[in-house]
Amino acid sequence: MSKRTLRRVCSSELTSRESESKRALTGSFLLVCMFENEFREALVAVWGSPGREVSFTVLPGLFNGNAVSLSYDRFRARARGRELLGHASNHVLNVADRLRQESPELVLKLLLHEAIHVGYPEHDDDFRAVAVDVGTNVTEREMKGLGVLVERELADGTFQEVTTLGSLADAKEFAQRRAAGPGRYRLTH
Question: Are the beta carbons of 50 and 84 closer than 8 angstroms?
């Protein structure tokens, strides 16, 4: 579908006489339109003017449990601090329908998080430093203030919840104190 068609769909009103399937399809295109500008703004907020040059496509219908995720070709993203040194030729921002129901503050944090991935594919220390600098978090759990979930691995390879702590530092300390015992600990934040 062309950008002109997308703009026309984005600006059109849905009437009550349209079929449910057409309404659902148009709703998906509206979702694309909603997040195209917001993600561009997030890219510029994270990377400055080079963020304007990042090529991306927004696709609706993410079903893996995440509200939003970024995928890209195999090019190794590179950055130093907030300086974008290299990035993939094209990125795909996958968005779930449920993102429309989230607060504008959470949506902004999620889009800033994904914009950081243009330069930092992993949630490493550099990623975390940029996240703090631009006012976002590393995970949706953190963004929603749900804390860090500490789980212990059971003999069958599954994990059992042990506790939830307020910070990653507290959760790491908790898991390290218990690491000498049976099972491995996993932190979900």
Answer: yes
